[in-house]
Amino acid sequence: MKRVELLLKDAHYIEYINNNNEEESANKYCQHGLQHHIDVARIAYILVLEHNDLNYFVKEGGLSGKLAAKECIYAAGLLHDIGKWNEYRTGADHAAFGARLARDILPRVFYNPNEIELICRAVYEHRNISRDMSFLGERVHRADNLSRVCSQCEDRANCPKRSNKEFSVTAFEY
Ligand SMILES: [Fe+2]
């Protein structure tokens, strides 16, 4: 996955992940660092494989093949929360802002315009489940929920995601 390796080395990508770490340095729970992004990328890919949906995604997304599909799923997972630091600083929605940041990074790491649309839409959509969500957006949303065992979190009573209703499922429901 050459393009995913390039994405992980992109200077702006590293900067945004570091910004998240900085903003969350005092948080004990629910960090949005590199590990969370890798978890979500892997789980989103597992969800697609478990349901035998990779060929469907290749076709539906107009992609060149399974490797391109895997690289798009990974990119969406790795980018989905890169705007989080800005939400802490300004209050602006991190999904919409993150999609804009992703749109700037992806051409540098050789994603084509069609792939960029799929990935940026998924980043934009990942926060809330909705009926007209894209295939990739829904997988990233589910993977995000599955990436944390919220039922075991000591701080769940204070979780902003619970009050925002960002969770559509509990972990292990799929
Ligand atoms: Fe998010």
TrEMBL record:
Signal peptide positions on this chain: none
Superkingdom of the source species: Bacteria
InterPro entries: HD/PDEase_dom, HD_domain
Every HD/PDEase domain range: 29-158
A Pfam match: HD
Name of the protein in its database record: HD domain
Source organism (scientific name): Syntrophomonas zehnderi OL-4
